[in-house]
Amino acid sequence: MSHIGYRRVYEEPRFRDGVRVLVDRVWPRGMRREDAHLDEWLRAVAPSTELRHWYGHDPDRFPEFRRRYLRELREPGRRDAAGHLQDLARSAPVTLLTASRDLDHSQAAVLAAWLAEHTPESA
């Protein structure tokens, strides 16, 4: 399986990023689209607005956020988007991008771990 990583969208792109996918529901504040160097913006895989608002990037709520977000990933629209990420990860390095300041307590971190665990290697 290819490498799956996550970074802030505001960081300069690196060659080893591979396919760069923004996984935020809203566009990053202050960033011009041409400066993002994205291959895709996959809003459908982002946590719901309700979950994002409840979480508020409070690290104490992260374990519950993670649980709820993983449950949301099983919903039909998000399941399809997550499946698309799995397809990408089978053939190329994938870097999930987010505007979150606290990367390790972000949906990108949850999603990267989920992808690493649930993406079978290609034949």
Automatic annotation (TrEMBL):
PANTHER family: CYTOPLASMIC PROTEIN, CYTOPLASMIC PROTEIN-RELATED. This is Uncharacterized conserved protein YeaO, DUF488 family. The lineage of its organism: Bacteria, Bacillati, Actinomycetota, Actinomycetes, Pseudonocardiales.
